[in-house]
Every structure is written in C-alpha cells, then in structure tokens.
Amino acid sequence: MTLVLTGVSHKTAPVEVRERLAFAKEALPGYLSALVDGRAVLEGMILSTCNRVELLVDVDPAHFEEGRSRVADFLASRGVGLGEDLGRHVYEYAGEEAARHLLRVASSLDSMVLGEPQILGQVRQAYADACAAGTAGRTLHRLLHHAFHAAKRVRTETNIASAAVSVSYAAVELGRKILGTLEGRTVLLVGAGEMAELAARHLAKAGAARILVANRTHETAHRLASEFGGEAVPYESFPSFLAEADICICSTGARKYLVTAQMARVALELRGNRPSFFIDISVPRNVDPRVGEVANLFVFDVDDLESVVASNLCERAREAKRAEQIVEAETAQFHKAMRALEIGPVIASLKGKMRRIAEEEFRRQRARLGDLTPEQERAVEQMLAATVNRISHPLIERLRRSFDTGDAGSVGAWRVSFGLEEELEIVSSVKTHLAVAFKLQAVTT
Predict the structure, then answer these.
(1) In this predicted structure, what is the pLDDT of residue 388?
(2) pLDDT tens, residue by residue, 224-259
(3) 380 within 8 A of 362, measured Cβ to Cβ
(4) Which residues are CB-neighbours of 372 under 8 A, at least 6 positions away?
(5) Is pLDDT of 419 > 80?
(6) Per DSSP, what are the bridge partners of residue 26?
(7) What residues act catalytically?
(8) Rg value, the chain, Cα
(9) What is the pLDDT of residue 411?
C-alpha cells in the first residue's frame, strides 16, 4: 500500500486554474476508470470542488514511480494550455502525509473557512463515486472510514464549527443570543441581495416563525420569500411592518438611513414597548445609530458583527489545535490497521508452510508407525499442530513487532528467509483473478 495524493487548492492556485482542472460529476466514472489501470494505480478517488481538485490513489509499491507519474500526467492533461505554469500550483503527498492530508480535508482543517461543514459531504460524495465506479478497494475503504471517524470526532469533541464566521450568520446568531431563541419570532429583511439571502437561510434553520422580505424589486423579494416560506411586503411601506418585527435586518445599497429614530419610536409604541433589534449589515448604514439611544431598541452594525466574526475565528483557530491532535491519532490508527492487513498474508503463508511441512513429514513417516487407532492418529495430528503453533508463535510475534516499528526491510528479509515470496505471489494472483471475476459479473448483471 502506497498512497499518493496530487492536487491543487485555494491555497495554491487561483480560481482560473482550479476551474480548468475541475471534473464534471457526470463524467467522473469515465475519468476514474481511466485513472486506475490495475497495474501501477490500483485504487483511485477524485475530489473536485470549487476550492480544490485532488486525485487520491493507491499505487503498487513495485511500480511506484510509474504510478506517481501516471497521476501527475493525468492531472496535467486537465490543464491543457497552462503548460509549465501548472507545476507551481500542484502539491503532492505520499504515504502517511497523503493520509493525514485527506483526514485534515475531511475535518475542514484545510478549508477556506476553518470548520465549515460542506467539505465532509463533498468527501463522502467523492468516495461514493469511486465505490460506484469500482475504483475504491481495501485501502481507500479503510482510509475513508478513518477520515469520516476523524471528522465526526472533530465535530463532537471540539467547538471548531460552533461559532459564526460570516457576517450574515453572525447577525442571526446575535439575534438568537439576544432573544434566547428565534422560534416563534418575526423577522423583517429589508433588502434581498446575497447577504440577505444568506441571513434568510440561517433564519429558517434557526426556526424563525415568520420572515418578511422587502426589496425595491418586488419580484426579487417574492422569490426570496417563497424559497424560505416567507412573505414579500411592499418596499415603500416596510416601516409599517416594523411593529411586527422582533428583529429587523437591513442589507441594501441605499446611501441613506432607511430606518430613522422617529420611525423606530412609532413601531416601539405599537409593539407595547416590547424590545426589538436592528441588525444593520449595510455599507453605508441603513439604520440611524440614534435608534439605539431609545430604551428597548438595540442596534448592531457591520463593525459590531465583524468583531464577533474575528473573535470567533480566533476561537476556531484555538479549537483547530485540538482537532489536529485528533487527526494525528486517527492517522496513526489508520497506518496501524493497514500494517495489520499487510502482515496478515505473510503470517498466514508462514503458518501454512510450516503446517504443510509437518503434514508432509507425517505422511512420509506414516508407514513406520504401524497400525494406529483413529484416536492415536488424531493424537499425532494434534501433537504436530501444537508443535507448529509453539514454534511459529515467537516467530510471528517478532514479525508483528517488525511491522509495528515500520521495519519493512526486516519483513522482506523474513519473506526471503522462509521462502514465502512464491506463495504470496500465488495468493495475490488468486485474489486479483477473483476481483476481476467479480467485477465482470457486476458488469454483466
């Protein structure tokens, strides 16, 4: 097992490079089949998102350089026209570094926004695509299991994703903290642009009972309100709805105050003096700061929100240190599991060979033992099996320790010393033929 990961990300390549290398989802099966040749590249997965394009493969150690070149050329073929310039954007990891990188990606430690949840779903989809294409095998199955487990631990054991790191999300979280909950609350959105749409998305998830949308273009307000089960209201008369709103979020391009102190006082009276909150994420500001001077009226502008975001980013960075420790632990567990899988055939071959030698000797010497009862014959066989186990046990323990310490050269010497190479090749050949047979059966059925 030799993992190789080659790719580009938002950290190494601008969007004009990433978009040239991106893979369309509908074409992935064909690309995966072309990438995995079954000789140098044994397994493969392609992760293609707006922020990264990565090829993760398991290369046959006997053809490592060939497999590595195949992956590099495959990625380069996507960037026709980029020429030698592509090389300075591409990174490559092998072995443990490749596994660690994937676990960091799945745990959102390598994302543009630290702790964002979308990347885990994208990694899951990439793995599902590889499984569907038949290019994921034992190594990728095991690695992705550890990647998903690491991501789950990062989510549950740290607070890396608990703090708002976008202005729109911070606005909604601020409203939730002030009111205790948004369930049953009415929110008025003044403006229907990207920031307002993001705020509406977060409000809907937070359980706001009623979302009112006012925008200069009524069709846009109606579209946004419909998407989130809200209600579009006339832009010119939005002040008359202030009395109904527990929270008013303003996000427009207007260059003047849309909500004045007098307007807010009238709404407060109609609300029976119940508190209301104005969250102004517009630049220039849409809410007169003097609104905040009125009792039971509270105003927060984009600077207030950005200070919250900055504080939360610092908190996420602190939590990321704990997350990195989880990734390290899971990476170590993955390699321990893979070493155990690799040593299995060697141990089985060693025990099998010793057992066959004992059985051959028994058959060769059987005539000299004379007549034996069935019970005596079984006793001799059991004695031979016990002898083989006692002799092989310390050898196998020593072999396991060699694997645990990563002494691959020592393991190779054991294979040669006990003449296991031919036996292992036979086992590997049988497994390969069975895999091909199963694949052909799957295609024909």
Answers:
(1) 81
(2) 899 888 999 999 999 999 999 998 989 888 888 999
(3) yes
(4) 380
(5) no
(6) none
(7) 50
(8) 32
(9) 55
Nearest Cα neighbor of 249 from 310, 192, 178 is 192
The dihedral built from the CA positions of residue 384, 390, 395 and 400, taken in this order, carries a sign that is positive
Residue 86 per-residue DSSP state? G
Q: Which helix (H) or strand (E) holds 382?
A: helix 374-404
DSSP string, 224-279: HHHHTT-EEE-GGGGGGGGGG-SEEEE----SS-SB-HHHHHHHHHHTTT--EEEE
What distance in Å separates the CA atoms of residue 403 and residue 399, rounded to the nearest whole number? 7
CA 33 – CA 225 distance, rounded (Å) = 44
Residues 6+ apart with CB under 8 A from 442: 134
**What is the helix (H) or strand (E) element at residue 122, kind and residue range?**
helix 118-133
Q: Which residues pair with 301 in a beta bridge?
A: 280
| Whole-angstrom distance, CA of residue 285 vs CA of residue 292 | 13
Position 109: which residue type?
Answer: L
Round to whole Å and give the CA distance between 315 and 163: 8
- In terms of phi and psi (left: phi > 0; alpha: psi -120 to 50; beta: otherwise), the region of 229 is left
In tens, the pLDDT along 262-308 reads 999 999 999 999 999 898 888 788 999 999 999 999 998 878 777 77
| Residue 95, SS3 per DSSP | coil
The two structure tokens encoding residue 410: 């020592």
Residue in the block written with tokens 């290019």: 135
Name, in order, each residue with C-beta under 8 angstroms of 195's C-beta and a sequence gap of 6 or more.
167, 168, 251, 281
Give the residue ranges of DSSP H helices in 15-114.
Answer: 15-21, 28-35, 64-78, 96-106
If 0-12 CB within 10 Å is exposed, 13-18 middle and 19+ buried, where does residue 12 land?
middle
Q: What is the per-residue pLDDT for 71?
A: 95
Closest CA to 326 of 152, 190, 74: 152
This prediction's pTM: 0.61
Burial environment of residue 369 by CB neighbours within 10 A (0 to 12, 13 to 18, 19 or more): exposed
Q: Which residues pair with 41 in a beta bridge?
A: 59
CB of 189 closer than 8 Å to CB of 249 = yes
List pLDDT tens digits, range 223-232: 989 988 899 9
What is the pLDDT of the chain when averaged over all its residues?
Answer: 83
pLDDT at 146 over 90: yes
